[in-house]
Amino acid sequence: MRNFQTLDQIYFDEQAQVIHLTATEGGQLNPRLALRVEGEHVALSASCGPIEIALRPRTLELRRSLKQVQPSESLLSARNVGTVQAYLAIALRPDGRLVLRPTIIADAYGHLCFNVELTNPVRERLIELLG
Description:
This protein is of the alpha+beta class. The chain has a single domain, classed as Transcriptional Co-activator pc4, Chain A (Roll), CATH 2.30.31.
Protein backbone atom coordinates (compact mmCIF):
# COMPACT_ATOMS: atom_id res chain seq x y z
CA MET A 1 0.00 0.00 0.00
CA ARG A 2 1.24 3.49 -0.77
CA ASN A 3 1.92 5.88 2.08
CA PHE A 4 2.14 9.54 1.12
CA GLN A 5 4.08 12.26 2.93
CA THR A 6 2.58 15.74 2.58
CA LEU A 7 5.05 18.49 1.72
CA ASP A 8 3.51 21.75 2.83
CA GLN A 9 6.40 24.21 2.77
CA ILE A 10 8.22 25.72 -0.18
CA TYR A 11 11.34 27.84 -0.16
CA PHE A 12 13.20 29.28 -3.15
CA ASP A 13 16.94 29.82 -2.65
CA GLU A 14 17.56 32.66 -5.09
CA GLN A 15 21.33 32.45 -4.85
CA ALA A 16 21.49 28.74 -5.71
CA GLN A 17 18.29 28.83 -7.83
CA VAL A 18 16.96 25.77 -5.97
CA ILE A 19 13.33 25.14 -4.99
CA HIS A 20 13.06 23.28 -1.68
CA LEU A 21 9.86 21.43 -0.72
CA THR A 22 9.63 20.16 2.86
CA ALA A 23 7.15 18.93 5.45
CA THR A 24 6.21 20.89 8.57
CA GLU A 25 6.13 17.63 10.48
CA GLY A 26 8.90 15.79 8.71
CA GLY A 27 10.01 13.83 11.72
CA GLN A 28 13.39 12.24 12.03
CA LEU A 29 13.70 11.26 8.37
CA ASN A 30 12.96 14.80 7.11
CA PRO A 31 11.50 14.05 3.63
CA ARG A 32 12.21 16.70 1.00
CA LEU A 33 12.28 17.49 -2.68
CA ALA A 34 14.73 19.88 -4.27
CA LEU A 35 14.45 21.10 -7.87
CA ARG A 36 16.70 23.25 -10.00
CA VAL A 37 16.21 24.19 -13.64
CA GLU A 38 19.41 23.46 -15.56
CA GLY A 39 18.68 24.45 -19.15
CA GLU A 40 16.77 21.68 -20.91
CA HIS A 41 16.54 19.58 -17.74
CA VAL A 42 15.37 19.89 -14.16
CA ALA A 43 17.65 18.38 -11.54
CA LEU A 44 15.29 16.77 -9.04
CA SER A 45 16.38 15.24 -5.75
CA ALA A 46 13.92 13.35 -3.56
CA SER A 47 15.33 12.35 -0.19
CA CYS A 48 14.22 10.88 3.08
CA GLY A 49 16.90 10.42 5.69
CA PRO A 50 19.97 8.98 3.97
CA ILE A 51 18.05 7.68 0.91
CA GLU A 52 17.92 9.79 -2.24
CA ILE A 53 16.52 9.45 -5.75
CA ALA A 54 17.94 11.87 -8.31
CA LEU A 55 16.19 12.45 -11.66
CA ARG A 56 16.73 14.81 -14.59
CA PRO A 57 13.42 15.13 -16.47
CA ARG A 58 13.14 17.51 -19.40
CA THR A 59 12.09 21.00 -18.32
CA LEU A 60 9.46 21.46 -21.04
CA GLU A 61 7.86 18.08 -20.36
CA LEU A 62 7.67 18.77 -16.62
CA ARG A 63 6.19 22.25 -17.09
CA ARG A 64 3.63 20.96 -19.59
CA SER A 65 2.63 18.02 -17.39
CA LEU A 66 2.21 20.20 -14.29
CA LYS A 67 -0.03 22.61 -16.20
CA GLN A 68 -2.09 19.97 -18.02
CA VAL A 69 -2.68 17.35 -15.34
CA GLN A 70 -6.38 16.95 -14.56
CA PRO A 71 -7.92 16.05 -11.18
CA SER A 72 -8.66 12.37 -10.74
CA GLU A 73 -9.53 10.01 -7.90
CA SER A 74 -7.32 7.35 -9.45
CA LEU A 75 -3.54 7.55 -9.35
CA LEU A 76 -3.50 5.33 -12.44
CA SER A 77 -4.13 8.39 -14.61
CA ALA A 78 -0.82 9.94 -13.61
CA ARG A 79 1.37 11.58 -16.21
CA ASN A 80 4.93 10.30 -16.36
CA VAL A 81 7.86 12.56 -17.16
CA GLY A 82 11.14 10.82 -17.92
CA THR A 83 12.04 7.41 -19.27
CA VAL A 84 10.71 3.90 -18.70
CA GLN A 85 13.42 3.21 -16.09
CA ALA A 86 13.43 6.60 -14.30
CA TYR A 87 10.46 8.93 -14.20
CA LEU A 88 8.39 11.37 -12.18
CA ALA A 89 4.75 10.31 -11.98
CA ILE A 90 2.38 13.26 -11.57
CA ALA A 91 -1.29 13.16 -10.54
CA LEU A 92 -3.73 15.75 -9.25
CA ARG A 93 -6.28 14.89 -6.62
CA PRO A 94 -9.74 16.51 -6.70
CA ASP A 95 -8.87 18.59 -3.59
CA GLY A 96 -5.94 20.22 -5.43
CA ARG A 97 -3.14 18.18 -3.86
CA LEU A 98 -0.44 17.30 -6.36
CA VAL A 99 0.96 13.77 -6.13
CA LEU A 100 4.60 13.39 -7.14
CA ARG A 101 6.21 9.96 -7.31
CA PRO A 102 9.90 10.02 -8.31
CA THR A 103 10.56 6.42 -9.37
CA ILE A 104 13.54 4.28 -10.37
CA ILE A 105 12.70 0.91 -11.92
CA ALA A 106 15.26 -1.75 -11.03
CA ASP A 107 13.97 -4.51 -13.30
CA ALA A 108 10.81 -6.56 -13.73
CA TYR A 109 10.97 -7.51 -10.05
CA GLY A 110 10.96 -4.15 -8.32
CA HIS A 111 11.32 -0.42 -8.07
CA LEU A 112 12.18 2.36 -5.65
CA CYS A 113 9.71 5.21 -5.32
CA PHE A 114 9.04 8.22 -3.11
CA ASN A 115 5.35 8.96 -2.53
CA VAL A 116 4.81 12.64 -1.75
CA GLU A 117 1.97 15.06 -2.22
CA LEU A 118 2.03 18.85 -2.26
CA THR A 119 -0.63 21.03 -0.73
CA ASN A 120 -2.52 23.26 -3.16
CA PRO A 121 -0.65 26.50 -2.20
CA VAL A 122 2.71 24.72 -2.56
CA ARG A 123 1.64 23.27 -5.93
CA GLU A 124 0.65 26.72 -7.20
CA ARG A 125 3.94 28.27 -6.04
CA LEU A 126 5.96 25.44 -7.61
CA ILE A 127 4.27 25.97 -10.99
CA GLU A 128 4.91 29.71 -10.67
CA LEU A 129 8.62 29.18 -9.89
CA LEU A 130 9.10 26.70 -12.73
CA GLY A 131 7.53 29.16 -15.16
